[in-house]
Design a protein that fits this description.
83% of the residues lie in helices and 0% in strands. It is mainly α and 87 residues long.
Length: 87
């Protein structure tokens, strides 16, 4: 049961991080429009780099969520002996 609790905590933490990162990504996108056409500006470069880091972290955490969802489905299947399709 501890493995299940750990998976749930990891899943929840990853989900919260994705939500937070998407909010930051939207803020960066809005700020980036201010510097549109000024790609040489250091603030533009900083925002762009921040967006890259955020997107990489979003992808990583979505992969964690997908893995944990699969683990949850497998655990559910062992408890119910029912095969579930991807939800």
């Amino acid at each position: 049961m501890n493995d299940v609790n750990l998976l749930s905590k990891d899943h929840f933490a990853a989900h919260q991080q994705v939500v937070s990162d998407y909010k930051l990504l939207l803020i960066c996108e809005n700020e980036l429009t201010t510097y549109s056409g000024r790609e040489k500006n250091p603030i533009y470069a900083r925002l762009r780099n921040e967006m890259i880091v955020l997107l990489q972290r979003i992808i990583l955490n979505k992969n964690i969520i997908a893995e944990n969802t699969k683990a949850d489905q497998d655990y559910l299947q062992t408890l119910t002996n029912v095969k579930y399709s991807n939800l």
